[in-house]
Design goal:
The protein has seven helices and seven strands. Helix 3 links the parallel strand 3 and strand 4.
Length: about 160
Amino acid sequence: MVSLIGSPDSTLNVINATKRLARAIAISQGQFSLLLACCNSVNKQQQLLGSLMEFSPVKINEIILPPSTETLYTTISNILGDNQPPSLIVRGLESITAMNQLIVSTNIMRDEFPKKFQFPLVLWINDDILRNLIWLAPDLKDWAATTIRFDAPRHTLVEQPALIA
């Protein structure tokens, strides 16, 4: 039998990943930091956000992007104006219709992010977006801190031993 979640430690791994993300947000206070949080389920993202807010000593603001979003930098700038939140999580990337365009424009504008945003920026992504980042904007992907995973990659299957009757 093949399962995506084969480890009894998967709950512990999620808790540890949540704590790691909370710590990365706390450490980056007052300065720009790009953090990637990878989770393939939108529902699970919402649950994890609740847990993250419990673990984090820092207030976390959230933006959910509409599918028509074309540029990340301009969209965030327009929503925030002159406000500098303690941290910002951006969700909804999986629904963007022009994802490749958004990734390329974000890569082009990457040097502007630390000039304008003095807070940690967390992008909730899935495996497809991560692959697109690696292919279309490897320098942006490398610029980000280590990707924090909240579930097994879609292509990784864990073999479970067959039950013997």
